[in-house]
Amino acid sequence: MNAWTTVLPTWIGPLRIVIDGSGRLCEVRLPGDTGSVDAVESEEKCAHVTQQLGDYFAGTRQGFDLDLWYQGTAFQMAVWEGLVDIPFGASISYRELASRVGRPKAVRAVGGANGRNPIPIVVPCHRVIGASGELGGYSGGVAIKRALLEFEGALVNPGLFGR
Asked: Can 125 be counted among the known catalytic residues?
């Protein structure tokens, strides 16, 4: 697969962006992810993604209009597709997301699928929290999750979310 990559500096730290040969976003690597990427550096090829993510971090974009490519199990794909429906400024519980994907008893599995999301922020797994309002985990660390939720205004009264 032909792929291109670039690094986008943001206020949460540098994001590594990876797109495929068709220009579809494949990965967003959060700060601290030191894994290697099999892709060629190209700011130009990744510009459509870095523009939208840059606008998000500048507070001028609340949603994304990008072609995405990811693969996983049927369950993971259903969870990731369900994440895209959570609007900016909102959060839901893991239990609510499990219900939305038709597997109401698969709360832990939803958490596992969330943790394997290859396109965080664009596929907003940070918007899923515990029913009690606790944040749960995040591949970039809970501090980044909290910062993103606060930035979006989703932590005004976290004890009420997801109920």
From this structure: yes
